[in-house]
Write a structure and sequence with these properties.
270 residues; alpha/beta; Rossmann fold; 9 helices; 9 strands; globular
């Protein structure tokens, strides 16, 4: 707001005394156009807009996957940990085998040539055994999906993800939804909390009938590892799971064995 000094001079009329009345001419700045709600970054980042952010993480991946005609996926789970000196021998074997299995699967799926893309290799988008799977599918000439998560310690997408199918999620539960939503099989390689979390949530969904057993094959890759880490028979003996729950998954320990099982199961979905 800006003012300019002026005076009003009144003449002497009929004996009246002339007066000078100072005043300011006010110049008012025109207000800026208001921001539309959907362009209001401060509002969209607020707690009140959380529902909109969640909905965005549902709709945007759905549109993008449909645009690129991704009908179904095979989800590879596994550790993102770097190959430190202590871990190198253990992880190097599984890295090679994750890459080889993804290569075999993608090479076979490409030749099916249905309308759209079926059994696309999908991972959590990070390094380690996830990178190996994306790498194998890319080597076969297939499209490959990475669904990363924003973390305080940033996890960059690995370089083998198809750029148009590289996703970044804020909410873990929306990422989990899309990891499993289009999956027809899950291959769980050795991993830590994240791998265990996604594996056991998947098994729970099948166990409770939220996902039909016939619609989702589950492989625990590396039988020795999985039987050493989790005492499945003890869970049955203690009544914590039923004997039939051990049929929700299958152990495999070589890429050829896992590929043969996957190929037989996945053909049912064509």
């Amino acid at each position: 707001m800006r003012g300019t000094g002026h005076e009003i001079n009144a003449a002497c009329i009929g004996g009246a005394i002339s007066v000078n009345i100072p005043f300011s001419r006010v110049e008012v700045d025109m207000p800026k156009n208001p921001v539309e709600a959907f362009n209001n970054a401060e509002f969209l980042a607020s707690p009140e807009a959380r529902t909109l952010r969640i909905l965005s993480e549902y709709l945007e991946p759905m549109v993008r996957l449909d645009t690129h005609k991704v009908n179904s996926t095979v989800l590879f789970l596994g550790s993102s940990r770097a190959l430190t000196e202590k871990q190198s021998v253990f992880f190097a074997k599984f890295y090679r085998e994750s890459e080889e299995l993804a290569f075999l699967l993608a090479r076979w799926a490409i030749k099916l040539k249905p309308k759209g893309k079926n059994f696309v290799v999908c991972t959590g988008g990070g390094p380690g055994l996830m990178e190996a799977a994306n790498r194998g599918a890319s080597r076969a000439g297939g499209r490959t999906i990475g669904m990363n998560i924003s973390l305080p310690e940033e996890q960059a997408p690995n370089p083998y993800i198809s750029p148009e199918l590289c996703f970044l999620f804020h909410y873990f539960f929306m990422r989990k939804f899309w990891l499993i939503s289009k999956a027809k099989a899950v291959v769980a390689f050795p991993g830590g909390f994240g791998t265990m979390d996604e594996l056991f949530e998947t098994l729970t969904l099948i166990q409770t009938g939220k996902i039909a057993k016939k619609d989702l094959a589950v492989i625990l890759y590396g039988e020795e590892f999985w039987k050493k880490i989790i005492h499945w028979d003890d869970l049955v003996r203690l009544g914590l799971i039923g004997p039939q729950d051990k049929d929700l998954f299958r152990f495999c320990s070589t890429p050829r064995e896992a590929f043969a099982f996957l190929k037989a199961r996945l053909k049912r979905h064509l």
